[in-house]
Amino acid sequence: MKICVMHSKPMIALLAVLAALLLTACAPSVKVRSDADPGVDMRQYQSYDFFSQMGVEGDNYSNLLGRHFRDAISAQMDARGYRKSDAPQLQINVSIGAEEKVRVNTYQDPYLYGGYYGMRGYGYAGGPWGYPGGTQTTVTQYTEANVYIDMVDASEHKMVWQGVATFTVTDKVQQQLRESVYNTVDKVFTQFPVAAPASK
Q: Which helix (H) or strand (E) holds 74?
């Protein structure tokens, strides 16, 4: 049995993970989920604002990143009838998490007939004629990252809703950062309990 180990490029900083994460936001590997306080009706809130410094805003992040998230989330909230306020009922935070994982795949080598035509004596060596077929295992390390959008009741200081987008980080660059952030936020808000009015 042969084992091939393939390593992804090391993560220099969380910002690099985020950039790759967002640039694959339209790939099929993106998954979204949400969680909510069952005792809270999100329709009871009318106003929102953001944390003065969100998790994606700081020395390790691009200054534009937080602005893109603020604009994209504001568009979603405004479309649902919420208004931005200096005395908000909801406060919003965006943060990023990343985790290194391992994927193991084992398959018959070669795929066809479970054997191969090679140098093991004469002729065919493989499963159909009673010869042992080989297997190959690949071990791939990859990075799984999450974008968290948290909404906190400003008066009670407790989280009432969270939306999460999960990505498998790849090196494939597909879109510009701003468009990727908007697409990510759009996907997360499909889980939001208050729907936006249908466009006419």
A: helix 63-79
CATH of the domain at 13: 3.30.160.670
15 is in which domain, residue-wise? 6-101+142-191
**DSSP H or E run through 33:** strand 31-36
Q: What is the pLDDT along the chain (200 residues), one digit of tens a residue?
A: 444 444 444 444 555 556 555 555 444 467 999 999 999 999 999 999 999 999 999 887 778 889 999 999 999 999 999 999 999 999 999 998 877 767 777 766 554 444 444 454 544 444 554 445 566 777 777 677 789 999 999 999 999 999 999 977 665 434 467 888 898 899 999 999 999 987 54
The token pair at 43 is: 């329709």
Report yes or no on 123 lying in a domain. Answer: no
The answer to whether residue 153 is domain-embedded is yes
d(CA 44, CA 40): 8
Q: Is residue 74 part of a domain?
A: yes
Number of domains in the chain: 1
**DSSP secondary-structure letter at 164?**
E
